[in-house]
Structures are given as C-alpha cells and as structure tokens.
Amino acid sequence: MNPDDPADTSQAPTFDELSLHPTLKKGIREMGYETPTPIQHQAIPTALTGRDIIGSAQTGTGKTAAFLLPILERLMAGPRGHIRALILTPTRELAAQAETFLKTLGRHTGIRGTAVYGGVGMGEQVRGLRGGSEVIVATPGRLLDHMSRGYVDFSHVEVAVLDEGDRMLDMGFLPDVRRILQELPRNRQTMLFSATMPPEIVRLAQEFLHEPKTVQVGPKAAAAVGVSHLALPVPAIRKSALLRELLNDEMMTSVLVFTRTKHRADRLFHDLERAHVNASVIHGDRSQGQRTHALEAFRTGRIRVLVATDLASRGIDVEGVSHVVNYDVPHESDAYIHRVGRTARAERRGDAYTFVSPEEEDDFHRIEQRLGLAISRSTIPGFDYSAPPPPRDLGIAARGRRAPGGPLSPSYRPRNRGDHGSRYGGSRDRPPRRRPR
After folding, report:
1. Do residues 241 and 360 both lie within one domain?
2. Comparison of pLDDT for 342 and 78, the residue scoring more
3. Residue 66: which domain range?
4. Full-prediction pTM beyond 0.85?
C-alpha cells in the first residue's frame, strides 16, 4: 500500500479533458455532467492506468462514476460476451443504483450489465449471468448463491470494485467478500472505496490490493451541523428503563436507537414491545424484506422507534428523525459521527443523546476529543438511577448454605466441583458410601 501518495489538489478539468472515449463523453454529456467531482478528478486518471486504488470519500460524492467510467473505457477495447468486471456493493439499493448508472453512462458502448441481489427471483439474474453480460453488480450473499449453482464464470474478470467497504464490514459481509475475491484471477485491477477505514478494511486492502494509490477526498468526517449533543450517565443495567423514561416525552416523535450488537438490539426491541412502545429493529441478521419493511414503516411514521446496529448508521436516509439515541457508546469515533448524522438532515435540527455507563467513559472521552468539544452531561429528574439488587436465590451453584432462618453464611466459600465429576468439591464433602446389604 502507498498511503503517502500525494493527492492532486489542482483545478479539476472538464470531462472533455479526461482521456475518455468519445462514445463515453457522449453519455456523460447526455447526463448533464460537465465537471468531475473531486473523487472523479483524482481517481479516474489513475484507474485508467490500471493501478489499484483505495478511495476514501463520503456517500454522495460521485464514487459510482469514478469507477464506472474507467471500467467502461477498459471494456470497450476488449472482447465481449464474458464477465470482465465485478462490482460488489453491500445493499441491493446500491446495486440497483450502480446498474442504472452503468446503463446510462454506457448507453452508446454496447456494454451490458446485470444487477444481482437478494429479495427478488433468480431467473432474470441467471439469464444475465449466462447471457454474456460484461459487468456484474452484486451483493455478496446472492452472488455466492449463483456461484454455488455454477452460474458464474470469473475466469475473464479484469476489474473488481468493492464499494462502501465499511458498510460491508458493518453488515458482516467481509468473509463472503474474501471468498469471492479468492475466486477471481490474480492478474486484475482492484478498487476499494470506503467512507472510513477501520482496521478490518485496511487488512482487506493489504490482502487483495497490489501497491494501491490512496485517494482521500475532503476533510475527515465531522458531526452534522444542527445536532444538539447530550450525554446521560447511567448504569448499564438501567439503560432500558432510561430509554422508556425518555420516550414519555411527546417531542420524541421519530427516534433512532443504536446498539453495539445484534443481540442487544433484539433484546432492547423486545423490552420496548413489552412496554407497548411502537418499535421495530434492523440489523445484519434480518432478511432484506424485514429490513426494507422496517425502514419503510419508520420513514412513513407507522413506527416511532427503530432500534439498529451500525448497519443503519449510513444506510438510513430518513428525513425528520427527531432524535438519535446512542444506547451503547460506539468504539469508533467515526461511528458516532455517522450515527448522529441521521438526524438534523436537510438543514433541520435534531438531538443526539448518548447513554454513558461507567465502563464506557474512556470510549466517550475519545469521541469528545475527536469532535473537539466537551459534551454536556445531564440527568433526568425523578428517574431512579440506582441499580436493582441481585436476586436472592441464585441457584445451587452460587447460593451456598444458609444459616437457619437467615442469609448466606458469611464464612461460606463455594468449592469447585472437583475431579470426581460430582457436585461436591472434594472427598470430605461427598456423602458416605453405603455398602450393599
């Protein structure tokens, strides 16, 4: 990897000044494009040379055209009728978007593309895979389904693109991505685009990219303007109760709640259901249909609370989210920025509450340092922050012997089960053997 390659900050040329085929330029003009975006300006000339690229840029900066135009340029000069380019995306929405761009930019090239993703039938996709498409845009899971059935021939692939790499990580797709990349020819060009570069993505790039050029566009991510930040210190065991207390506020009309893990998201969702809160949940173990249904219900206001893992911190584009609640403090500062960026969209204002347990103070302090601000702390009047006492009856293995009519004997120390496979700690604790009569 060559992260030290300097980024070209000179004035961006027009598309007419880039070394692109006139047929491609015609498609670009028909789309109404004149000047490349910064990521296109920096990535396209390098990609045209065949060099591997790591591109770091936020969503909406023009990454799709930044890799599609070099792909189309390359494929125009070679044979047709084989899969020569593979683009992996984390969601079917992104796959459909890339397919649309491909057909629009390449409408005069004759290059064919097929989008492959879940939630729809496989028949049309099979026809595209076997019918001579030169470009495949796919989500990892559905592509692996086709591969297992023998519908895909990767032997002619010249270019591979990993789009939204950090979202691939959030959704648990990296093992699938590795399996797919291992099936591609080694002599290929690989481009990886990601809004952030967590350690797992860096390792993936080191494993599958050869001396890539790093293209960094724009400053590092910053918290959205218009967000009011507030920290609420609370014992971990009281977080669910605190959230229910906050939801008594009728101003919290559309609430997005983030947890660290899928298990905690499910558990919190069931807690809210038992409290008769109109809620749903979204994470990587939910099917595409379930995720789509939950997002649409949240977007249209049919549900008030959506519980999510960081899968949704970049994938949710919902106007009118009144509050973001960080139920768990994220480990990474960039994850905090992406989470709170789901509110205060379209120049609106929004509130971001973060529940901070004593165990999470260090992570939260790092977020404050990253943002360059001290986030105010507060408590909710009337809320009982004290943790409930543990249950008195903890089971045979932990409760020990009780003094007659009283609590656990203070001198009792539980023994291990010992080497004899019994529940007694040693020979002195075992009952005497009875001789057979």
Report:
1. yes
2. 78
3. 15-216
4. no
CA distance 194 to 198: 9
> pLDDT of 225-242, one tens digit each?
457 889 999 999 999 999
C-beta separation of 193 from 223 below 8 A: no
Which domain CATH number covers 339? Answer: 3.40.50.300
Number of structural domains, the chain? 3
What torsion do the CA atoms of 172, 174, 176, 179 make, to the nearest 10 degrees? -160
The verdict on 120 and 170 lying in the same domain is yes
Q: State the number of CA atoms in the 13 A half-sphere of 373 facing the CB.
A: 11
Angle at 291 between CA 290 and CA 295, to 5 degrees: 120
User: What percentage of residues in the chain have a pLDDT greater than 90?
Assistant: 49
pLDDT in tens, 66-87: 999 999 999 998 888 899 999 9
CB 258 within 8 A of CB 313: yes
Task: Decide which of 249 and 430 is more confident.
Answer: 249
User: Do 367 and 244 fall within a single domain?
Assistant: yes
The widest CA-to-CA distance across the chain, in whole angstroms, is: 104
The pLDDT value given to residue 299: 85
